[in-house]
Amino acid sequence: MIPFLVLIVQQFYLNLDCVALLTYEQPLESSVGYLLKDSQREVVADTVNAMILSTNPNVKESKHCLHSYLERLLRQLTACCLER
């Protein structure tokens, strides 16, 4: 249970850092500028995607906001292809 709680706290702070990128005139020089590096691109995209999906009023459980339907389908197809 504790590792799950740590993950939730880390995700919360990552969400705040991603939103903070919008507040700086020069985000590269800010304390959250590390998020603009190529190595962080996918993490930031996933975080922003999850925040956008979480605004959908039709979603009842927050765990469904982590991945879009298209991404879930692609993951399932990839897993099926790898099993062959």
Automatic annotation (TrEMBL):
Keywords: Signal. Residues 1-20 form the signal peptide. The keyword Signal applies. It comes from the Eukaryota. This is Uncharacterized protein. It comes from Flemingia macrophylla.
